[in-house]
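FAQ
Q: What does a multi-component entry look like?
A: The components come first, one per line:
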Amino acid sequence: MPDVKKFLYVNRKAPYGTIYALESLEVVLIGAAFEQDVSLAFLDDGVFQLTKGQNTEGIGVKNFSPTFRALGDYEVTKLFVERESLEERGLTEADLQEITYEDEDDDWAEKPSIRVVSRAEMAEIMADQDVVLSF
Amino acid sequence: MSYQVNGHTIEHDEEGYITNLSDWSIELANEIARTENIEMTDEHWEVVNFLRQYYEEYQIAPAVRVLIKAIKKSMGPEKGNNKYMYELFPYGPAKQACKIAGLPKPTGCV
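Then the predicted structure of the entire assembly, as tokens:
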């Protein structure tokens, strides 16, 4: 495949209150059509985007958290979450929703998309990209 | 801009997607299909119902290639292919079927 670049979408903001989180997810879904090597990073308050049991009834906006579970269908299978950002907010991996993808190269085995990484690993992941988009 | 169904007026945008998703009904789906020159068969309904379930689960209308892949997984390769889907919905399986299903325009259709 010609010219496949590594794209990283960096998500640092809480899911609601600003439009950043939803806009980022929409750009990811639209960009997925271009068949690039896409990863998502969640750090700072961005880790709240992946928490389970979100309920937006009280604030009158759409709960778009189920859409993260469709990312596998769009062949977006790498969601890196920074461990320190979770810990600083009293969260653990168990507070995040389960997101999986089916591995085409491994008889469609279901595998987890979320990978919790350290701050140092996150820095390496960022350094390894061709394009980094911040939201 | 609006559709008329059973004496009710249902608003839609400039491309024909309904504005308020809870306005959807089977009668409305038939009316939208009529404006798209599609005669609804069981095969059409199968795709429309699949899309509505997909939206219920993931809160998005899938892009066409994602839809066809998901149909293939759910109903098999004889239905999950471009030829079958474009025969049902000649102007784009995701775009037309989403419109009939009362969903927004697919996310990631470029």
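Q: Is there any commentary attached?
A: Sometimes. For this entry: Residues 42-58 of chain B form the longest helix (17 residues).
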